[in-house]
Amino acid sequence: MAERQSGRHRRPPEVQATYREVFAVGEFRALWLAQALSFIGDQLAQVALAVLVFDRTGSPLLTGITYALTYLPPIVGGPVLSGLADLFPRRTVMVVCDLLRAGLVALMTLQSAPFWALCALVFLTVLLGAPFTAARAALLPDVLSGDRYVAGSAINNITHQATQMLGFLAGGAIVAAVGTREALAIDAVTFGVSAAVLVVGLQRRPAPRRREAESLALWRGTRDGARLVFGDKTLRSLVSFAWLCAFYVVPEGLAAPYAATFDGSAVTVGLLMSATPTGMVAGAFVFSRFVRPSSRIRSMGWMAMLACAPLVGAAAHPPLWAVVVLWGLSGVGSAYQLAANAAFVAAVPPSGRGQAFGLAQSGILAGQGLAILIGGAAAQVLGPEAVVALAGVLGLSVAAMLTLVWNQIRAEVIVAMHERPAADEGAAAPADDAGAAGPDAERTLPAPVPADGRSRPGMDDAEGGRPAAVRPTA
């Protein structure tokens, strides 16, 4: 067996990074703090915008349209604008996007702004999030190497879910205390502080690609990136795992009508909406801290099925406590995205990473938005319990098919992770933090891959000559 081989054929022991090692990297602390500020500000803005629009128009439809604008820009412009993260220095892209968004959100606080102008400002603000997110996702593998990247992704995911769980409660209280426009002003300030943190905390790095006239054809880069991802079986499999979230996001979109099958109270709605994020936090923590890197890859398919299977239980009309448990288990299963993300980063060359991350993320948002829309329409006819159960059945079927394909190629991914040249580690870790994580923090993953986690053997040497890549599945 491979584990008993000796000499030069023996595999090096797998190294699992700790959260302490990750936070010891100064650049990661800057990225994490900027992200946390953004999440907190966004939660305030979501609540404030909903209240502001409804107070001004009195229309639930217009309020819903404003909220829907948070989905549309990344779908429409995400794959194109994400390519900016490969054409310009990534720190510069992030700082400029933060400053522009601070200005746009500040304009939302003006009382004279008509509804159409408010919608335009929301659209542009969310649109600028696409190149920012792509640049941050593409930069993270340069900051964290090996299993530290997986631990860092888990920390980001836990931070996101934790702010989401607490945000709707604290956000409503803050908006009630300070007012809608003041809450939007706070959001604008968080963008400005985030830009300052990134300027101070991140090193200067050159643009991954030369900005030749041909390179500036962002639409062409998007097409080349799609051809790259969907033309490779490993990347195609990984991005499919990432987009599987469209099925298990349906319960979140139906939380209010599902709560109506019980007592319909706001407390029940909040309990249901927090069940899946709570499971995600627990799953991400356990999966990143107590499961070996190669075991994450092997168990990815089973975890994906776990993300969908508990939802089938809705067909039995379980009591509220059982629904919360089932939705929480679904959240635990979704931790497979950490492995998919790491594998994707390992497969995509650094020069095309931003485009790859943008494409994958846009697919995630499009799938989630479409699934919630279809689920809401179906719930009008079938009821929320039947729709959640149906989403579970369909998701489980797709996950099972993806797992059959993944089981045939996962061995190549694991081998690529172990055989990646050690020289890559020196390139991935910043010089001023090279020793922060300690000598044991060896690189156990191949070259960084988008958050989808697809790991593609054979593409590792395609240095800068590869077309625009695909975006991760965070």
Automatic annotation (TrEMBL):
Protein's membrane topology: Multi-pass membrane protein
Ranges for region Disordered: 425-474
Low complexity composition-biased segments: 425-439
GO MF, one example: transmembrane transporter activity
Alphabetically ordered keywords of this record: Cell membrane, Membrane, Transmembrane, Transmembrane helix
Compartment(s): Cell membrane
This protein's record includes keyword Membrane: yes
Spans through the membrane: 30-53, 65-85, 115-139, 184-202, 238-260, 266-287, 299-318, 324-347, 359-381, 387-407
Main location: membrane
Domain of life: Bacteria
Pfam families: MFS_1 (PF07690)
Cellular component aspect of the GO annotation: plasma membrane
Classification via SUPFAM superfamilies: MFS general substrate transporter
Name of the molecule in the record: MFS transporter
Origin organism lineage: Bacteria, Bacillati, Actinomycetota, Actinomycetes, Streptosporangiales
